[in-house]
Amino acid sequence: MVAPAHPIIERVTRVAPLGIRFVDEALGVPVGTGLTVTAWPADRPAGRIQAFRNPSGIYVFAGLPGMHDIETGSGNAEYWAMVSRRSFVVEVVDAERRFLPFRFTADLPVRDVFLWTDPTESVPNGQAGVPLFPAPNRSVPAGLAVVRADLRDMDGEPAAWAVLEVWTDSGRLGRGIADQHGRVAVNIPYPALEPFGGRLPASPVTTEFGLPATPLVRQSWNLELRVYYRRGQTVLEIPDLADVLGQPPGRLLLAANPDEPLGDQVLKYGRELVVRSRDRFTGAFLPVLLVRPAANSP
Fold first, then answer.
1. In the prediction, which pLDDT does 201 show?
2. Which residues of 7-20 are buried (b: 16+ CB within 10 A; e: fewer)?
3. What is the pLDDT of residues 163-195, one digit of tens each?
4. Residues paired with residue 268 on neighbouring β-strands, in sequence order
5. Three-class SS of residue 35?
6. For the whole model, what pTM was predicted?
């Protein structure tokens, strides 16, 4: 005998107003542990709520201030067509200190996983993953190279939150963000191997296929470095990610007074590339890399 079906007296639905996936900028893989992610209404900083991590590694919010009616909505097509959105600030801090902290603003609720739009892209293209940038003291992931610098403004102050990009003729290899003290580490994949390691040997070594070859430890590549930096009136402990990535181009200097551009740098396989400026009078390396801010900086 089939038991009679019980009537549905009430149906309760819950809509998560925000779910975020975070991605390691250098490795391109999701980061699902070790992060403290909080959010609050843009006009109410005291209403901070912490996200929880679901089994898929996505950080999800519930119980956000002023969002009760939205979170208990139906979540159907009509709901998403009519729902009104509210601006929230999202803050990300890595308890393990692998990645730099930052904030960004999002209009909630967001359907599906939050799409991050990089302000540097000429054609806006949202991606379902907010990038995380390595802290300068983070261990270099296996198989990657690293470019390091201690960036200093022309007044001797740290170039806090400057963006450093690494390029070859084939395009951008990677980018990093300086911390509030101006220290930056850019983790990059090694460029394609060169038959002669970038330099023609006097007696070429050949492979079994008759092609010239250079031992891996002797491979080297010329890199172009680009900086984006706007001098700030106040150095923030936790900056806005869109503001940081949207800074205008600055200039890296080999020497100052008068300015001498940095020029290409040589990366050698298996070695960290530490980039520094020189003293114009002695030629000795300085402990820092000088940055000329964007022309429109204060």
1. 43
2. eeeeeeeebbbbbb
3. 999 999 999 999 999 999 999 999 999 998 765
4. 220
5. strand
6. 0.87
